[in-house]
From TrEMBL:
CDD domains the record matches: TlpA_like_family (cd02966)
GO molecular function: antioxidant activity; oxidoreductase activity
Pfam families given in the database record: AhpC-TSA (PF00578)
Boundaries of every Thioredoxin domain copy: 257-413
Protein name as catalogued: TlpA family protein disulfide reductase
Organism: Spirosoma profusum
Length: 438
């Protein structure tokens, strides 16, 4: 999912900074309109598809209001900036996009979701929002009855112009309420929330990157068919069957080194333009974690939110980390802004390098030892001898439950074992590492 599917620009048509408006400690001056605090229900319109989302507007600190997107148990906070007496700008944190909206005379919000990537031309995602509505699709108590229960693990087959890799869905239904997550070889959908009515179901999600909706029909045999809509004119078909044995391909076997390679080799600029390589003294004799990411990628930011605190707690154990960012514009100054925002938000204490434009082929060219660049993120573990020991494709976050717990357990076990290995005698800071030059 990519915010570059949306329109360029910052300010909604007709919403400009008003001149002569006074601002004090209580916000805009007399006559200004701000969103009411509390719960809201918004609705994107994509082609003829409506995608609802929920958020909370917290105005306890009028100078620094917060908009919180709600998805099941997930909460994502975003700072709100005033654009004038009746308009707000909500930057989507590390995603270079924003919600820009006007407070209408009746208190509703109307606006657009916009890409902020310089020079990008595309389509906008208009939305409206109403205060005081806490449901997503159907008001509680007004749902149509259903005889179905979708709780369980589902094997989903995804179709576009051609069949795509299968997905696995983990769903939980309580009455009419439906929540869950869809996992694929590149990551997870984040937390989905929706409803089951009659023989139909619908789920949606919006937490900063593009909104999406899953709509489906429950067939007489218990199988499901449906469609996923995301961004502009982007929809895929799916069908699914409940299957307790459904599993994705092993994420540790999808990306690997080409025959004849044992090591990874690259030289890329950091955010200040300085060239960094794995052969630098800093990394010799260390266990090195390389994560290949993009700030536009939700699974990448989820992975970063895991790695950044882990590294901070373990950096004195003989381990280093490098993030290689592939961004939506092939420009180091732009990458310094986007990746710098990521660094600040998550408190990253390891090196961040710029790989180039966000494209799997470009990433494959920059890292020629890999068989392919299949997904952002991809995480590579390198031992003290500089040899690649493990490559993990994609990332599944906390919402995946046992999958995430198992990932963390294996991560800690594998890193402990690599860190416990002896430092090669040739690896002395400031001196050449003979093994790394072989």
């Amino acid at each position: 999912m990519n915010v570059s599917q949306t329109i360029k620009g910052v300010v909604l048509a007709g919403v400009t900074l008003a001149s002569g408006v006074s601002y004090g400690t209580d916000g805009p001056g007399t006559g200004s309109k701000t969103p009411k605090p509390g719960i809201w229900r918004g609705e994107f319109v994509i082609s003829e598809t409506k995608i609802p989302f929920n958020f909370e507007y917290n105005a306890k600190d009028k100078d620094h209001p917060i908009l919180t997107l709600l998805n099941g148990t997930r909460r994502d906070d975003f700072k709100v900036t005033s654009l004038g007496p009746d308009s707000i700008f909500v930057k989507m944190n590390t995603y270079d996009a924003a919600l820009v909206a006007k407070v209408e005379s009746d208190g509703r919000l109307s606006g657009e979701y916009r890409s902020l990537v310089p020079g990008f031309r595309g389509n906008s995602l208009p939305f409206v929002a109403e205060h005081g509505k806490n449901y997503r699709f159907v008001e509680k108590g007004k749902e149509l009855p259903t005889k179905h229960n979708l709780t369980g693990k589902w094997d989903l087959k995804i179709y576009s112009k051609a069949k795509l890799p299968d997905n696995v869905a983990l769903l939980k239904q309580e009455g009419n309420k439906l929540t869950g997550v869809v996992m694929s070889t590149v990551g997870d959908s984040r937390e989905l929330e929706g409803v089951v009515e009659g023989d139909e179901f619908v789920l949606s999600h919006f937490s900063g990157p593009n909104p999406r909706v899953y709509r489906g029909k429950i067939n007489e045999d218990g199988s499901v068919t449906g469609e996923i809509s995301s961004g502009i004119y982007n929809s895929t078909k799916f069908d699914g069957t409940k299957n307790t044995a459904a599993e994705l391909p092993d994420p540790y076997k999808l990306t690997y080194l080409k025959e004849g390679y044992k090591k990874l080799d690259f030289t890329l600029p950091d955010l200040d333009g300085k060239s960094v390589s794995l052969s630098d003294d800093k990394y010799k004799g260390k266990v090195v974690i390389v994560e290949i990411i993009g700030t536009w990628c939700p699974n990448c930011t989820d992975q970063t939110s895991f790695l950044a605190p882990w590294f901070k707690a373990n950096k004195n154990r003989g381990v280093e980390a490098i993030a290689i960012g592939f961004e939506q514009k092939d420009d180091l100054a732009y990458a310094k802004y986007t990746l710098g925002t990521l660094k600040k938000k998550y408190g990253i204490e390891y090196d961040i390098l710029f790989g180039g434009i966000a494209d799997k082929k470009v990433a494959s060219d920059k890292l020629p030892a890999l068989n392919q660049m299949m997904a952002f993120p991809t995480t590579i573990l390198i031992d003290r001898k500089g040899e690649v020991r493990q490559i993990h494709t994609g990332y599944t976050g906390e919402v995946t439950g046992d999958y995430f717990k198992n990932y963390v357990a294996k991560w800690n076990k594998d890193l402990d074992e690599l860190i416990a290995e002896p430092v090669p005698t040739a690896s002395v800071a400031g001196k050449p590492n003979k093994q790394s030059e072989e």
